[in-house]
Amino acid sequence: MIQLILILLILLIIWRVIDRFIRKQIRIGELFVWVIFWLLAVGFVLWPDASQRLAEVFGVGRGVDLVVYLAIMLIFYLLFRIFMKFEKQEKELTKIVRYIALDETEKKPQKNKDE
Fold first, then answer.
1. Distance from C-alpha of 63 to C-alpha of 71, rounded to nearest angstrom
2. Where are the domains positioned within the chain?
3. Measuring CA to CA, how many Å separate 5 from each of 8, 9, 45, 46, 85?
4. Is-above-0.70 flag for pTM?
5. Exposure string over 84-104, b if 16+ CB within 10 A, otherwise e
6. Cα–Cα distance measured from residue 19 to residue 106, given in angstroms and rounded to the nearest whole number
7. Under a CB-based contact definition with an 8 Å cutoff, are residues 51 and 66 in contact?
8. Mean pLDDT, residues 15-42
9. What is the C-alpha to C-alpha distance for residues 44 and 62, in angstroms, rounded to an integer?
10. Residue 53 CB: number of other CB atoms within 10 A?
11. In whole angstroms, what separates CA 19 from the centre of its chain?
C-alpha cells in the first residue's frame, strides 16, 4: 500500500515539474534533472533491493542509509544554490538602490553655502 501511495505522490510531483516547464518557470536542463531524479525514486520504491545493492557498492550498510545520505547532500546543495542566488540578488538590489540614490541627489537643486 505504501508503494502505491509513494508512486502516486511521485507521479504528482513529476506532473508539477512538467507543468512548471510548460509555463516556462524552469528550463529544459532543470526539467531533465528533476524528472530523472523522481524516476529514480520510483525505481527505488518499486525495487527496494536496488538501493541495498547500490549501498553495498558505496560501502554503506543499508540502502535506506544511502538514500538518506544522498537526500541530505541534495538538500545542502540546493540550500547552497538558494544562498548564492540570495547573495546575488542582494548585490543587485544594492546597486539599484545606489543608482537611485545618486540619481535623486543629482536631480535636487544644490544650494550654495555662500548665499
1. 12
2. 2-106
3. 5, 6, 10, 12, 34
4. no
5. eeeeeeeeeeeeeeeeeeeee
6. 47
7. yes
8. 95
9. 13
10. 10
11. 16
* Inter-residue long-range contacts of 64-72, CB under 8 Å, 24+ positions, other chains counted: none
**CB within 8 Å of 55: residues ≥ 6 apart:** 61, 62, 63, 65, 66
What's the whole-number mean pLDDT along residues 62-78?
Answer: 91
Q: What's the CA angle centered on 59, arms 53 and 65, to 5 degrees?
A: 70
What letter represents residue 98's amino acid?
Answer: R
Q: What is the signed CA dihedral for 13, 16, 20, 22, rounded to 10 degrees?
A: 120
> Residue 110 and residue 82: Cα distance in Å, rounded?
43
